[in-house]
TrEMBL record:
GO molecular function terms listed in the Swiss-Prot or TrEMBL record: indole-3-glycerol-phosphate synthase activity; phosphoribosylanthranilate isomerase activity
Indole-3-glycerol phosphate synthase domain span: 25-254
EC number: 4.1.1.48
Keyword Chaperone in record: no
Keyword entries, A-Z: Amino-acid biosynthesis, Aromatic amino acid biosynthesis, Decarboxylase, Lyase, Tryptophan biosynthesis
InterPro entries per record: Aldolase_TIM (IPR013785), Indole-3-glycerol_P_synth (IPR045186), Indole-3-glycerol_P_synth_dom (IPR013798), Indole-3-GlycerolPSynthase_CS (IPR001468), RibuloseP-bd_barrel (IPR011060)
First-tier enzyme category under EC: lyase
Pathway: Amino-acid biosynthesis; L-tryptophan biosynthesis; L-tryptophan from chorismate: step 4/5
Keyword Lyase annotated: yes
PROSITE patterns listed in its UniProt record: IGPS
Protein name per UniProt: indole-3-glycerol-phosphate synthase
Reaction equations catalysed: 1-(2-carboxyphenylamino)-1-deoxy-D-ribulose 5-phosphate + H(+) = (1S,2R)-1-C-(indol-3-yl)glycerol 3-phosphate + CO2 + H2O
GO biological process, one term: L-tryptophan biosynthetic process
Length: 271
């Protein structure tokens, strides 16, 4: 069985080791860049289940979802018009076909919070995300050591980024406190095999920390799949949005169904 996560993280660690751009040079002038809207606030303010619509060109297990030259600006603008609460942009190049330029272009065309979704192992990538217009960055618990989670999250917060900590198992929840995570995402996709377990989010939900926004990731093929995610603040949807011939209509249907999903009575305190 292919171990996608190990291979992808190994690539990013090799790439970071060859990166000769200094942290100091990337930090220069960063505080003059206006911050993006808050992902956490957008999720907690959503009346139902907020939709975070993703732009990713391909995946290692399923190949290309769209033509390689598909314009990110056109698609994320459709997401925004359809009522998505935020946008996620996948910036990994060799495995997902994305670039940091995709995120930068998205930031120029929408007012929504934007998540940089990548396999971040180096603090310089946080600074690049902030420069490109990200509101938040993804940190993947399964890809990092606890001390790396704490260090990267600290840098992210220092430079004005929110942290979306992605977990897959209950054993990874202790890292949410280390990261002071603004959003905790439960990925229903196993990143070693890329298979989806649609019950994973429900199993982990009750144990999620009350201070963070709660985001379900992966496994949503259409509006009917949202009913099982009561108690989450939002859902991140990638493949269904990218395969859609009419991204506006697809996201609009998801948004309307998400609005009718009532939150759990134990919903944590909103902002």
């Amino acid at each position: 069985m292919a171990d996608y996560l190990t291979d992808i993280v190994a690539y990013h660690r090799r790439r970071a080791a060859l990166d000769d751009e200094s942290f100091t040079s990337l930090l220069a002038g960063l505080d003059a860049i206006e911050p993006r809207p808050s992902l956490r606030s957008a999720l907690l303010a959503s009346a139902g289940l907020g939709v975070v619509a993703e732009f990713k060109r391909r995946s290692p297990s399923k190949g290309w979802f769209v033509e390689p030259e598909t314009d990110v600006a056109t698609r994320v603008s459709a997401y925004e018009r359809a009522g998505a609460v935020a946008v996620s942009v996948l910036t990994d190049t060799p495995h997902f076909g994305g670039t940091l330029a995709d995120l930068e272009r998205a930031a120029q065309h929408v007012e929504l919070p934007i998540v940089r979704k990548d396999f971040i192992v180096d603090a310089r990538e946080l600074l690049r995300a902030r420069r490109a217009g990200a509101s938040a960055v993804l940190l993947i618990a399964a890809a990092l050591q606890p001390e790396e989670v704490a260090s990267l999250a600290g840098v992210a917060h220092d430079v004005g980024l929110e942290v979306l900590l992605e977990i897959h198992e209950l054993s990874e929840l202790e890292l949410a406190e280390l990261a002071a995570a603004d959003v905790v995402g439960v990925n229903q996709r196993d990143l070693t095999s890329f298979r989806v377990d649609t019950d994973r989010a429900r199993r982990v939900l009750a144990a999620l920390p009350p201070g963070a926004a709660r985001l379900a990731e992966s496994g949503v093929r259409g509006p009917d799949d949202l009913a099982g995610l009561v108690g989450f603040d939002g859902v991140l949807i990638g493949e269904a949005c990218m395969r859609a011939r009419d991204p506006y209509a697809t996201v609009r249907a998801l948004v309307e169904r998400g609005a009718s999903v009532h939150q759990d009575l134990r919903h944590h305190e909103s902002v």
